[in-house]
Please model this.
Amino acid sequence: GDFATGSVHDSARRPLYEITLNMAGGPICVAALFAGASLTKGLSLVESALAVISGGLILAIYGGIIGAVGMRTGLSTGMLLKRTFGEQGSKVISVLLALCLVGWYGVQTGFFGDTIHMLYPQGGWLTSSHSAAAWGGVLMLLTALWGYRGLSILSLVAVPLLFVLSIWGLLTAISLSNISAYVPASRETLGNGITLVVGALAVGATTTADITRYAKSSGHSWFSCFFAYLVTNSFMLLSGAITAIATGSGDLLAAMLALGLGVPALLILVLGQWTTNDDNLYSSSLAITASMPSLKKPYVVVALGLVATLSAVVGVANLFVPFLLFLGVAIPPIGGVLIADFIVVKGTAAERLVTRNYSVRAFLAWCAGATA
Model:
């Protein structure tokens, strides 16, 4: 099911609005607000905006090329990696991507648990950080079991609602303070800010083909990537940056709670984390299934989801910013090698399969890119 180990049939291609909503669901999450807030610790608002737009443009172009390859071949990122790194070599890369996505799932679920506790501190055991992370993580893996169809149903409902709620919260935050006079307490380089922005969605952009393989044309694929990474992602990061300056708390939830808007804050938390973690679990299960086709995808989804939830309960979210910076260095070169292989070296024809087990050249290129 879900064309996990094969090419998406033409009859299974989906319309532009559906692809775009699925892509947009990834950047909409509470962690994006925290990432935006992290920028303001060492950058001014103008510098933060430059980092956000620059990083978003990098992600849109990078993810857009990978997405176009996925659309033309109908293959997931895990299947594309077989042609670039070899049948056996791709297993190393697929497992790394899956681990990063599982780690990202844990980060998001940890934020979920912490914020549920912040919203309802008197809720007892049910709303404690650890228990909320546990039941939230299990809840989020349910729609991932449905594969692409589950992503579509969730995104169709959640993404438009999240845009409305986030705009409402942003206006609320701006009304609380004058942000024009903000000066950061310390100084950080613009380059590090861009790296953080890219790192926040580095894995997601590398696995863009998992969604865009269902697109009907390259134009649809490119539009969905630019909307997700340059528009949606920039909006969420700048929302986090502005509310950090306005409230000192770094997220829309605190601003909304200050005015007693608990229900909208809860909806942003639940729906935002759910759409993003669905993408993470969906892509990680595809990567593992592509490298180990004997495994059944539903079992892979459940196993990865439970491991990720456990990592959230034990506190992986505490490593949030270093994790993003690591992803910004280690993951994009994987996509860079894939892009070079398909676009420059041998084109994107679906019938041109790799028969070798390993590609030493691809691994050396990846290491060189990460080192640089």
